[in-house]
Prior knowledge:
Layout: H1 2-33, H2 38-65
Amino acid sequence: AEEVELLHEEMCRVTCFPRWHTSWWNQKIAEHILGASANDEGLGAYAYHQARLRDNLAHCFKNKWVAHLPLTA
């Protein structure tokens, strides 16, 4: 009923936010990849690590909830 619909909506949001955050971190990688300084290299590595963490989190949620999410998610 309504509770199930709300739960599906929340599950979709929980899987969408880490994907958005992954793209945000990937944008940070692009911003710092052009710099030649060690600082830029470190920031790029940190951003890459954060992007991978968020991407893994999104995949984890999706894999756990695939049987419960609507087909449009």
